[in-house]
Amino acid sequence: MSKILEMNEIALSFGKEKVLKDINLSVDSGEIFGLLGPSGAGKTTLVKVIVGILEATKGSVWVQGKKMPSLELMKSIGYMSQSDALYQELSAKENLAFFAALYGLKKKEREEVINKAANIVNLSKELNKEVRHYSGGMKRRLSLAASLMHSPGLLILDEPTVGIDPLLRQSIWDEFHKLKESGITIIVTTHVMDEADKCDRLAMLRDGSIIACNTPEKLKAEQGVESIEAAFLAYGGGAQ
Amino acid sequence: MNVMAVVKRIAQQFIRDKRSLALLVIAPILVITLIWLVLDGNEYEPEIAIDDLPAPLEESIQEESVHNLKEMSEEEAKQALQQSNIDAFLTTKNDALYILLEGSDATANSATLQTIQAAIQMMNNGIEQEPVIEYYYGSDQLNLFDQVGSVLIGFFIFFFVFIIGGISFLRERTQGTLEKLLSTPIKRWEIVFGYLIGFGIFTILQALIIASYSVYVLDIYMAGDFWQLLLVTFLLAITALSLATLLSAFANNEFQMMQFIPLVIIPQVFFSGMFPLESLAEWLQVLSKLMPLTYGANAMQAIMLKGQNIWDVWQDIVIVFGFAAIFIVLNIFALKKHRRL
């Protein structure tokens, strides 16, 4: 399988604080790759480096064989941040149309792409509502739609299911699998252990370092434990 | 194009957010109207009490202030002064004119003295010899509102554009949309210009409404060309907007944005020509040269009061424009804090 993302010896510090330390990571095309770690582990910083918003102090990031950050490459990356980055006064459709325009989609394409994305996240009927009247879950789904409209090859989702009820979380994960089948690579951060189980491969992040990286099954088997949670604690040096 | 996408979005937001739109237009109109009501009053007519004056003087004062002359003794007058019923008491003591002024109101003081002086002059010279007075700028109708109104129009546009522009740009950051924006292929300058043009459309409307209201409804003294005045106010608004978006990079929330008002906005009023600067210490005069409103207000006064052409104040215009350009460039660099590319 070809690699869609490669990170070599990434290090990043804010002032004196080292947020990322010597991170080596590669993600295959078409997999769902999970980044698991407690809050403060550096997950968000790491995905921001991949997206190109932050630049690493040291090391290099390659997406589709090209060096990041690059404005050209940003077109083929979809990013959903931890906060719902939406304009409250605008309708859902206007929000989507705005971001579609920024991704360089022509006016004719926009209509089609917006409807398709709204359909995926099940918001087709609420498109003309203003976002401030949306529920928390709907906003989350709309943010997801905004990040996949331009059919990116690489979709990066920062805690996409945080604050979402189990039913909706299930349906969003079903969606991820559908997107994966259509050939999209997904990188998803989470601190929920049972979500990590649903990923094809998983990297465990603690204090800015990757402590383990493999399929969920192998991570559990290697430590001889039943759950991802137990595996995480075991890799972390038996913090229990 | 990305700039136009941002412009369109800002316009949509603005049209939905009626209250902010109202703040941009109605608030300045309200404040200017209030100032007009206070400053554009009729000339103050002093109430003068007299006692035992030589007949010619009494006659001539009578002529200057027809219905406000009362005859009372000094004792009565002092009581009337205490109750603020009269502004001055006039009598003769030891063959000299004696004036007792109420004294606590500067406007009343000078109006009273003016009346008495005019009366004395009339008595001495006779009516035929009255000097001919002409006004190089303005006219004898020019009152305090006309004088400071030109500065105030500029100031309030500057003030309200600063608040609204600064807070909307700040919100872009606090609600996370700036980060989302920067994850798309948009360039930093495209964001800044999108904001300038998007808000620019509304500030043109704002300038048009406020300037027309001041000139045609409040009848502020206007000797120059209306469209040239509009151009200057628009330039000031753009400067305020670029300064606000730049400073919003240094504020973490709306409250901190408000803290810039006494630091950055209020001092500009004092140095913008509303009060005479010539008597100020030199280092204070230098300070006034660092403020965009100084030049904007100077250009507005030149157009409104002196009826000058915009070409006569081209230096002011260029400097205001220069301020805006510097703020815009700094703003594009300040966004590097969020994405280096």
Notes on the structure:
The complex is a heterodimer of chains A (240) and B (341). Chain A is an alpha/beta fold and 240 residues long. Chain A has 2 domains: 3-76 and 153-235, Rossmann fold (3-Layer(aba) Sandwich); 88-151, no CATH class. Chain A is 36% helix and 27% strand. Chain A contains 9 helices and 10 strands. Chain A has helices spanning 43-51, 71-74, 92-102, 107-120, 136-148, 166-181, 193-196, 216-223, 228-235; strands at 3-14, 17-28, 32-36, 58-63, 66-67, 77-80, 154-158, 185-190, 201-206, 209-214. In chain A, helix 3 (92-102) packs parallel to helix 5. Chain A is globular, with a radius of gyration of 18 Å. Chain B has 341 residues and is mostly helical. Chain B is built from 14 helices and 4 strands. Chain B has helices at residues 2-16, 18-39, 55-64, 74-82, 106-125, 144-174, 177-182, 188-217, 226-248, 254-258, 260-270, 282-288, 292-304, 314-334, and strands at 48-51, 69-71, 88-93, 96-101. Chain B has a 4-stranded mixed sheet, sandwiched between helices. In chain B, helix 8 (188-217) packs antiparallel against helix 14 (314-334) and helix 13 (292-304) packs antiparallel against helix 14. The A-B interface holds A 51-55, 69-72, 74-75, 77, 79, 81-90, 94, 98-99, 101-104, 130, 146 and B 2, 5, 8-9, 12-13, 16-17, 175-177, 179-187, 338-341.
CATH architecture of the largest domain in chain A: 3-Layer(aba) Sandwich
* Fraction in beta strands of chain B: 5-15%
Q: What top-tier CATH class of the largest domain in chain A fits best?
A: Alpha Beta
CATH H-level superfamily title of the largest domain in chain A: P-loop containing nucleotide triphosphate hydrolases
User: Using only CA atoms, what is the Rg of chain B?
Assistant: 27 Å
Give the number of helices of chain A. Answer: 9
Radius of gyration of chain A: 18 Å
Task: Give the largest chain-chain interface (CB within 8 Å).
Answer: A-B, 32 and 24 residues
Strand order of the largest sheet of chain B: 2-1-3-4
Task: Please name the CATH topology of the largest domain in chain A.
Answer: Rossmann fold
Which overall shape of chain B is indicated by the principal axes computed on the Cα atoms?
Answer: elongated
Q: What is the end-to-end distance of chain A?
A: 38 Å
Order of helices and strands of chain B: HHEHEHEEHHHHHHHHHH
Overall pLDDT score of chain B: 86
Major sheet: arrangement of strands of chain A: 6-7-8-3-9-10
* SS-based class of chain A: alpha/beta
Assess the beta-strand content of chain A as a share of residues: 25-35%
